[in-house]
Amino acid sequence: MIKILDLRDKDCPEPLIKVVRELRNISKNYDQLKIYTNIPTCVSMIKEALELIGISDIEIVNIGDDYEITIKIRDRY
Description:
With about 80 residues, the chain is α+β, with helices and mostly antiparallel strands. It contains 2 helices and 4 strands; from the N terminus they run βαβαββ. The protein has one domain: TusA-like domain (Translation Initiation Factor IF3). The chain has helices at about 15-25, 40-50, and strands spanning about 1-5, 30-35, 60-65, 65-70. Helix 1 packs across helix 2. About 15% of the residues are buried.
């Protein structure tokens, strides 16, 4: 199952905090977390933070003015 966080129009660090909080509390029923944002600096901040905590299975896709960040959850972070 996929958990979706729509963080469009939210300035960082709010999206970053929400992503980290969600990863800490995500149910075992989910195998992916999809994040939507339209702020490029948030994409960079989220990607860097995820890599720092050891999450490397990240896919970032630009869709028009938006970005879709997909995190595949294999183990619990």
